[in-house]
């Protein structure tokens, strides 16, 4: 009976029934350790961070990283250290963040303009808008283009961009999906549940689109046709080692480009879809957010990234979305490199530790009324002007996580999430469509996305000339 549910649901049900914040499930020869208490989570990712700085080897992660050549999915070792160092010192670093500001700003402009066009046609599919905004931003940063194919007159995605985001989200759904052959390796190759075929197909769809751009760009640099770096891809291709030799092979460039694309799209789009659904469902919250926007930015100009520090309530809404509606039930898995003890329990070497995002964020011992969407819980009552940030180093919920395997892109992730949420709130008045009794806030059965894509009614709320500026 229990096993009819997706794995993450029965794991949480079991932990709840046992009244425990740490458990051990044995799958094949592997100990899987789910954790839903911040104190225990901190023991893993703060106190014993070095011992948990690896990732499991799985069919999907190996396929998506071309044999562990990237950062997010690579196990602990020289390749992971090399790729992570490149990202933090050359790509996702403050100087590059500034360098690419105008490309992000242009995408925020495209978002505003595209939704303006959609609003004229009726209700708006917020999930579609959110996912494609994220796709556009990361394509602009990595490949300096928002379209693989022909630009579309309304500013929306064309068939290839739809294909791109569909395939990326399919890959993300297949990653660390408790596939039986990852725990019973002798089943690998038999593909009893079709997982391997789905992984290979989705990966091919993404890499097919990326490879065409990367192969051509590689050629341009090698032939001397290209001289000036304009995007992350150029930076990756032109990095040199201490002997002035190319630091990365083309395979590494491809793996790292795919890595960044995977890392950038699901968190901001999911958080904003939920935050908008929750605030539209509680008009007093929506009103507070819109009032803040009007007070900080006004209606005579569009919100910019430089406004983010002043938009505390909006940031609190996104934090609350990360807490209550994380993109996935579990954080990316961490592997124990050696035997150890956590919360008094023996954890054998090779165990997979998975911090439960829903277990932490909805833990009733940590949060009052945990299932209520209440952004104010993130605003310091004693000092309402204190900066709200999206990071959560104490692991009371997972946003960017922490430690050696923590997210390296809190600035970019914050900018993307906040520009998406902010521009939607500033530019449009959102309400539930007349045909709906209430906004459907159910979570999907197989994951933590909304059960159905959020569709809302929207009206323009700014002077017309701003939408095209
Ligand atoms: C709101 C947006 C984002 C959120 C909430 C987020 C969150 C996370 C989380 C939870 C992890 C796993 C941490 C762990 O294993 O404990 C992670 C890892 C990572 N993220 Fe992000 N991320 C975001 C955006 C991005 C973006 C835009 C990039 C780069 C383009 C990025 C790059 C990475 C990388 C490279 C890692 C893996 C680090 C490693 O394994 O060494 N993330 N992120």
Automatic annotation (TrEMBL):
Binding site for heme: 407
Keywords, in A-Z order: Heme, Iron, Metal-binding, Monooxygenase, Oxidoreductase
Molecular function terms, GO-annotated: heme binding; iron ion binding; monooxygenase activity; oxidoreductase activity, acting on paired donors, with incorporation or reduction of molecular oxygen
Cofactor(s) demanded: heme
PROSITE patterns documented for this protein: CYTOCHROME_P450 (PS00086)
GO biological process annotation, one example: secondary metabolite biosynthetic process
Domain of life: Eukaryota
InterPro entries with a match to the protein in the record: Cyt_P450, Cyt_P450_CS, Cyt_P450_E_grp-I, Cyt_P450_sf
Family: Belongs to the cytochrome P450 family.
Protein name: Cytochrome P450
Taxonomic lineage: Eukaryota, Viridiplantae, Streptophyta, Embryophyta, Tracheophyta
